[in-house]
Amino acid sequence: MSRIFAVSKYIFRQSFRNRIMNVLIIFAVFAALFSLAVSELAQEAEVKMVVDFSLFAIELFAFLTVVLSMTIQIFEETELKTLMLVMVKPIKRSEYMLGKYAGVILTVLMNAAIMTAVMMIIIRLKGGDPWDIKILAAVSFSYLGICVLAAVALLLSTVSTTVPSWVIYITLVYALGHLTVHLKNLVDSSAGEAVRVVVDFIYYIVPNLELFNLNDKINAAAGLFAPGYLLLVLGYAALYITVSLTAACFIFDEKEF
Amino acid sequence: MPPLKRTIFYFVINAAFALMCVMNFFATKELKSSEPKWYFLSAHSYTKFSQIAAVSFGYRALLADAEYINMLQYYGSSKAAGGAHKDLLSYINAITDAEPDFTFAYTYGAAILAFNLKRYDEAVEVIKKGISYNPTFWKLRFYLGAIIYSRKGDTLKLTGLLEQAAGFSDHPAVVDRMLGNIYEVSKTPDFAARYWLKLLKTTNDTETKKYSAERLKLIIAAGKIKSPALILNNL
Amino acid sequence: METVIEVKKATKIYRPLDFWKNDRTTGIENVDLAVYRGEVFGLLGLNGAGKTTLMKVLLGLLKPTSGEVAILGGTTNDIAVRSRIGYLPELPYFPKYLKVKEVLEYFADIFGIPRGAQRKKIGDILETVKLSDKADSRVGGLSKGMQGRLGLAQAILNEPDLLFLDEPMSGLDPLGYKETRDIIIDIHKQGKTIFFNSHILGEVEKVCDRVSVMHRSHLIDIQPLSAIMEKYGSLEKYFVGTVTEGAKI
Predict the structure, then answer these.
(1) Hey, are the CB atoms on C98 and A17 less than 8 Å from each other?
(2) Considering only residues 150 to 209 of chain B, which have any Cβ-Cβ distance to chain A shorter than 8 Å?
(3) How far apart (Å, rounded) are the C-alpha atoms in residues B106 and B95?
(4) Edge-first strand listing for the sheet containing C40-45
(5) What pLDDT score was predicted for residue A150?
(6) What is the pLDDT of residues B8-30, one digit of tens each?
(7) Domain of residue C234, residue span
(8) Are A65 and A27 in contact (CB under 8 A)?
(9) Spans of chain A, pLDDT less than 70
(10) Yes or no, beta carbons of A222 and B28 under 8 Å apart
(11) How close does chain C come to A155, measured CA to CA in Å?
(12) C95 interaction partners in chain A (CB closer than 8 Å)
C-alpha cells in the first residue's frame, strides 16, 4: 500500500511540476470571459449558460488533464526509460500500475474540484444557486466518467508503443464512448445481423460515457437524477475500472524493458 | 499463481465483465425510458451537423445556448424587425431541437410571439411542442391559457394568469411588460405608474428597465396622475 | 564459495518488431555463468555483443527465451530478491523537474525505508556520491557526471548485496572515473558482490577480480584477472586476442 502511495505521490508531483495545472488558469480565464460575454448576450438565461458552459468545460479540461498527464508518463517511460529503474526495485508491477492510476485520478480530482469552485463562485455572482444538487451531481458524474476513461487510458498505454498512437486511441475511445448508445439505437431499429453484432461488441467493450452525461439533463423536469439510476451507473463504473485495471496489470506483467 | 487461484481469478474477472455488461444494458434502458425519443440519434432526429456533433460529444445544452443567443440576436436586429421577424419560429425551434428540456425557451419564445408580435398560432405551436417534451412541467399549460385568453381579448382572465405568472421565479420579463401595458388600459394611471416604478426597481432585465422608465415618463407627461411629485421623488 | 548469480544455458531471442517480418535477433545464446559472493565481476565485449541483454536478463527486465537464471538463490520475480539488488543503467535519466532529494525519497519509499530513517539515509548516500550540496537542486540543472552519480546513489540506497552496473563510466570525465571507481572499491570492501559491464579496459583492470568476454551473443571466456595478467601482461592484449579468436567461431 505504501508503495502504491509512493508512486501516486510521484505522479501527482510530476503533473504539478510539469505545469499541468496551467489548464486551470486557462479554464478560469475562459469561464470569466464567457460569463462576461454572456451577461451581454444571454439576457434572461445567464445562469443556465454559465452552468452549461462550465460543466462542458470541466469535463473537457478533466479529459485534457488525463491526456497531458499520461502523455508525460508514457514519454518518460518509453523514450527516457525511467521505468527500468523502477521495475528492478522491490515493487510489484500491479502496485506500480495502481499507483499510477491513483496518481492520475487524484490530479484530475484536484483540477475538477478547483474548476467546480470557480464555477460555483461565478454562479453565485450571477445570482444563481451554486449548491443546486443537480449541478453537483452532474459534476460528480463527469468526474466518474473521466475516472473510467483514465482506466482505459492506462490499459491502452500498456498496448501502444508510442505517444501519438496512444493519443489517437484515447481520443477515439472518448468519441466512441459518447456515441455507443446512439449507434446501438440506430442499428437496433434498422440493420442487418452482421452490423448489429459489430455494434453490440463496441457497445459492451467501449465505456458507455453517455451514461455519465448528466450535463445535458440539468433542465429536465424528471428522469435521470433518480437514486436507482445513479447507483446503477456507479456500479457500472466500478466494474469497468476494475476490469480494465486488471487487464492492464496482466499485460504490464508480461512486458519487457 | 497456483492453478486453482488462477482459475478462480479468471472466473471472478469474467463474472465482473459480464455483470458490467448487464449493468450497461439496464442503465441504457433506464436512459431510454426516462428520456424522450429525440434523445437518441435516429433517421428522424438531429438532422443538422452541429446537432450530431453536440450529441456525439455530449454538449447539447451548450448548443441550445448558442441557438438561444442566435434567436436573441435575430429578434434584436432592425433588419429582422423590418421583415416582421418572420423567421422567429424557426429560430425558437432550433433551440428546442437541440435541448427540448430548455423550458425557458418555450415560455420566452411563446410570450414574445403572442404578446409582442400577436402571432398567436405560432405561439401555441411553440408551447405545444414544449408540453409534448415536458409533460410534467405544468407552467407551460399555464402560458397556453394566457395566450388563448390574449387572443380572445379576455383581458380580465388574462390579467389574472399573468399576475400569477409574474409570481414564478423563472418567468420571462416580457410577462411583466405585458402586464404593465394591460394595467395602463384597464386600471387607473396612478396604479399603472406605481406598477412601472416597482418593476423599474426590482427587475434584473435591462430591456425591461428601459421600457418601464419610458412608460413612466410618458404617463407623467400626459399629466393624468394626481401627484406626479410622489413618483418623481421615488425615481 | 556461495553463488549469487547462476545462469544455465540462457538464451534470449528478441521477438520481431513487426509481426509480419521474420527478423528475429539473438541477444544472448547458451550463456553459462556463475558469480560468487564478494567478488567484482567484469563483463567485457564489443558494442552489440549482448552485454546489456545479459544484464537485463539477470535483472528480470527481459525474460529468457530458454535456460535458467538464479539470483541470490531465487529469481528476480521475487520482491524479496529485488530488495537486495541495486542497478545502475547506462546513462540513467531522472525527471528534470524533481529535486535530487525527491528522486531518492521516491525510491526510498519504494524500498520501504521508514520515513524517519530516510533523511539520514539519503544524507549519507549523497555524502558518499559527493552530491550533498545538490540535494535541493533540480535534476535538470545537474551535469551529466552528477546525473551518473545520482544514478549510483539510487542503486546503493538499499545497501544491496548484489550491485549491477551497466557502463558506469560512460559519459564521465577522468575525475569522474576515479570517483566512481573509489565508490565501487569501497562497496567491494564491505563484502558486496558487483557485476559490471564496461569497455573501458583500464577501469576493469583496476577493480575486477574476474573478467569474462562476450562476443556475438556468446560468453566465450571467463578468467581470474590475476591469471590474465600473468599470461598476457595486460587486459587489452587478452581482450583483443580473445575477441579475434572468437571471431573465428
Answers:
(1) yes
(2) 172-173, 204-207
(3) 9
(4) C85-88, C162-166, C193-197, C40-45, C210-215, C218-224
(5) 95
(6) 888 888 899 999 999 999 888 88
(7) 1-78+195-249
(8) no
(9) 21, 39, 191, 221-224
(10) no
(11) 20
(12) 14, 17, 76, 82
The CATH number of whichever domain residue C61 belongs to comes to 3.40.50.300
Residues B9, B7: Cα–Cα separation, whole Å: 5
Q: What integer pLDDT is reported at residue A162 of this predicted model?
A: 84
pLDDT at A219: 77
**CA B126/CA B107 separation, integer angstroms:** 8
Q: Do C97 and A17 touch (CB under 8 A)?
A: yes
Please name which of C170, C165, C172, C124 lies closest in space to residue C146, comparing C-alpha atoms.
C172
Determine the 3-state secondary structure of C75 from DSSP. Answer: coil
Q: Which of the residues A1, A2, A256 would you substitute to probe the C interface, choosing the one with the greatest number of C C-beta atoms within 10 Å?
A: A256
pTM of the model: 0.86
Give dist(CA B98, CA A79) in Å, integer.
45
On whether residue C124 sits in a domain, the answer given is no
Rounded Cα–Cα distance for residues C167 and C198 (Å): 5
Helix or strand run (H / E) with residue A134: helix A133-159
Q: What share of chain B has pLDDT > 70, as a percent?
A: 91
Q: Which residues, 6+ apart, have CB-to-CB distance to C235 below 8 Å? A: C201, C202, C204, C205, C211, C225, C228, C229
Query: Model confidence over B20-64: pLDDT tens digits?
Result: 999 999 888 888 877 666 667 776 666 678 888 887 778 888 999
Query: Å from A76 to nearest chain B CA?
Result: 30
Q: Which three cell numbers stand for residue A252?
A: 504490464
Scan residues 89-128 of B and list those with Cβ closer than 8 Å to A. 99, 101-105, 108
- For range C157-177, the mean pLDDT: 86
Task: Note the pLDDT of residue C243.
Answer: 84
Amino acid C149 reads: R
Eight-state DSSP code of residue C133:
G
Which residues 4-63 in chain A show a CB within 8 A of chain B?
A: 41-45, 48-49, 52-53, 55-56, 59
For residue B225, the distance in angstroms to the closest alpha carbon of chain A comes to 32
Sheet with C25-36: list strands edge to edge: C25-36, C3-14, C66-71
Cβ–Cβ under 8 Å, residues C202 and C172: no
Residues of A in contact with C93 (CB under 8 A): 80-82
Task: Note down the domain range covering A135.
Answer: 2-253
Q: Mutate which of A81, A85, A91, A162 to disrupt the C interface (most C C-beta within 10 Å)?
A: A85
Please indicate whether chains B and C are in contact, defined as at least 3 beta carbon pairs under 8 Å.
no
Strands C210-215 and C25-36, bridge-based pairing: unpaired
In chain A, how many domains are there? Answer: 1
Give the HSE-up count for residue B133: Cα atoms under 13 Å, Cβ half-sphere: 22
- Structural domain count, chain C: 1
CA pair distance C148, C171, nearest whole angstrom: 8
Chains near A (3 or more Cβ pairs under 8 Å) = B, C
Q: What's the whole-number mean pLDDT along residues C171-198?
A: 86
CA angle B220, B221, B227 (to 5 degrees): 35
Quick check: A112 and A62 in contact, CB under 8 A? yes
Crossing angle (nearest 10°) for helices B173-186 and B206-222: 10
Chain A, 172-231: which have a CB under 8 Å from a chain B CB? Answer: 175, 178-179, 181-182, 184-186, 189-190, 203-204, 208-211, 213, 215-224, 226, 228-229
Classified as helix, coil or strand, B15 is helix
**C190 assigned to some structural domain:** no
Report the pLDDT averaged over residues C21-45: 86
Give me the pLDDT at residue B235, please: 63
Per the structure block, which three cell numbers stand in for A53? 458552459
Nearest to C89 among A9, A85, A89 (CB): A85
**The C-alpha cell that represents B119 in the structure block:** 402571432
Using the CB atoms, write b or e for B108-130: b if 16+ within 10 Å: bbbbbbbbeeebbebbbbbbebb
